[in-house]
Amino acid sequence: MQFEFDQSAPLYQQIADQLAEMIFTGIFEEGEQVPSTTQLSQELHINPATVLKGMNQLVDLQLLEKRRGRGMFVKAGAHQRLVAQRKEAFYQEYVASLVAEAKKLGIEEAHLLELIKRGYDHE
């Protein structure tokens, strides 16, 4: 398991984001235990409270669940929740602005759909 950190966001947020990515990509599957805060803090050489804050964000998002005395586990349905969140983020970040720009340029819906299809075919 590899974490990469930069200065773009607080460490706890980067931990939350990278654990969520590991759930999304199947590195951690639903029902599987994730490394403990102690284990992660020792491996990453950061404060356990920082790791816990990141993990608690995922608990709040219903991606992880705490099992008393056992640790943190990927919650059932976590992958589907991440897919839904990412689809909404994709719409907000890309589709809405694409449509707005197309309207400014006078591109009709049918032509925009042709351009998108061309993009798919090009890949």
From TrEMBL:
Signal peptide: none
This protein's record includes keyword Transcription: yes
GO molecular function, one term: DNA-binding transcription factor activity
Coiled coil start-end: none
Domain HTH gntR-type: 9-77
A Pfam cross-reference name: GntR
Top-rank lineage group of the source organism: Bacteria
Classification via InterPro entries: Tscrpt_reg_HTH_GntR, WH-like_DNA-bd_sf, WH_DNA-bd_sf
Keywords associated with the record: DNA-binding, Transcription, Transcription regulation
Transcription regulation keyword on record: yes
Protein name as annotated: Transcriptional regulator
Source species: Limosilactobacillus ingluviei DSM 15946
